[in-house]
Design goal:
The chain has no helices and six strands. It is mainly β and 95 residues long. It has one domain: Roll (10 Kd Chaperonin, Protein Cpn10, Chain O). A six-stranded antiparallel beta sheet has the order 4-5-1-2-3-6, with no helix packed on it.
Length: 95
């Protein structure tokens, strides 16, 4: 199954959380922070603004983005964990 986001929604796949610290300490599952960096998988067409043309989306598939903590709705599609977020939950594009 494929998902096509609507309006100003974006489908992202989270990157893996760091398993070790910079000093080499291995982290347990409960000690890991929830990752905030994700890869954009699909982008909606934009939400209409005041009955006019949709506002242009600022990200495209393949972009690496920084998300607000605990944002979005988690979904599982064909065994893959994805998150659907609003465009406003994306804080920055990582370059």
């Amino acid at each position: 199954m494929t998902l096509k986001p609507i309006f100003d929604r974006v489908i992202v796949k989270m990157t893996e959380a760091e398993e070790t610290t910079k000093s080499g300490i291995i982290l347990t599952g409960s000690a890991k922070e929830k990752p905030q960096l994700a890869e954009v998988i699909a982008v909606g067409d934009g939400a209409p603004h005041d009955g006019k043309e949709p506002v242009a989306m600022k990200v495209k598939p393949g972009d690496k983005v920084l998300l607000s903590k605990y944002s979005g709705t988690e979904v599982k599609v064909d065994g893959e964990e994805l998150i659907i977020v609003n465009m406003g939950d994306i804080l920055a594009i990582a370059e």
